[in-house]
Design brief:
The chain is of the alpha+beta class and about 190 residues long. It has a single domain, classed as Cyclic Phosphodiesterase, Chain: A. Helices cover about 30% and strands about 40% of the residues. The chain is built from 4 helices and 9 strands. The strands form 2 sheets. It has a 5-stranded antiparallel sheet. A 4-stranded antiparallel sheet has the order 3-1-8-9. β8 and β9 form a beta hairpin. The longest helix is centred in the N-terminal third of the chain and has 17 residues. It is globular, with a radius of gyration of 17 Å. The N and C termini lie far apart (about 35 Å). About 30% of the residues are buried. The model has no long low-confidence stretch (mean pLDDT about 90).
């Protein structure tokens, strides 16, 4: 292996969506004393495929695979939906849902199939479009906070996404730093 980087494929969220998420986070932060590692605005995206450790010699092939995956996929019309969480009674991740077109599920499946040809494993978990609000460190007080978040009046803004991004993720003490490696337009 040459140099290895940590990589993932995602859709960037517009500032208007990041603003909604930040308002929800700030509201929860001030009202509840839950132990949550909140997602920073620069980390707010819709992950379509986490690649993990990736040999940099594969970057050109990955970009070609993503070009093949987006063929016939038009820009995606999406909207903000309700908040929720993963982890059942012991939430691990809290998120803001997204209403999405059927094309998004097709795109995610095409990406999975194309990069599988490069040796990446197929995704076994069902795809659930969301933006991570935060990662739960301790579940104390979570039930009340989730009930509160679900009652918040959320501006149901609609937006369009017209590009797919291959990101590098560098884990640092101050949090992950994301760098665009490739941008593929949806047409």
């Amino acid at each position: 292996m040459d140099k290895v980087i940590r990589a993932f494929i995602a859709l960037e969220m517009p500032v208007s969506v990041k603003d909604i998420v930040q308002r929800m986070q700030n509201d929860a932060r001030t009202r509840f004393q839950c132990h949550i590692s909140w997602t920073r605005p620069e980390g707010m995206h819709l992950t379509l495929k986490f690649l993990g450790d990736t040999d940099i010699s594969l970057l050109a092939d990955l970009e070609s695979a993503l070009q093949a995956a987006v063929k016939g996929i038009a820009p995606l019309d999406m909207a903000v939906a309700e908040p929720g969480h993963f982890g059942g009674r012991n939430p691990r991740v809290i998120w803001l849902g997204l209403t999405t077109p059927e094309n998004l599920f097709r795109l995610q499946k095409e990406i999975d199939q194309e990069i599988h040809k490069l040796g990446f494993p197929l995704e076994i978990r069902p795809f659930h479009p969301h933006i991570t609000l935060g990662r739960v460190k301790n579940t104390k007080g979570m039930k009340g906070m989730m009930a509160h978040l679900k009652k918040l009046p959320i501006e149901k803004i609609s937006f369009q996404v017209n590009e797919l991004i291959l990101f590098q993720s560098e884990l640092k003490p101050s949090g992950a730093v994301y760098t665009r490696l490739a941008t593929i337009l949806l047409k």
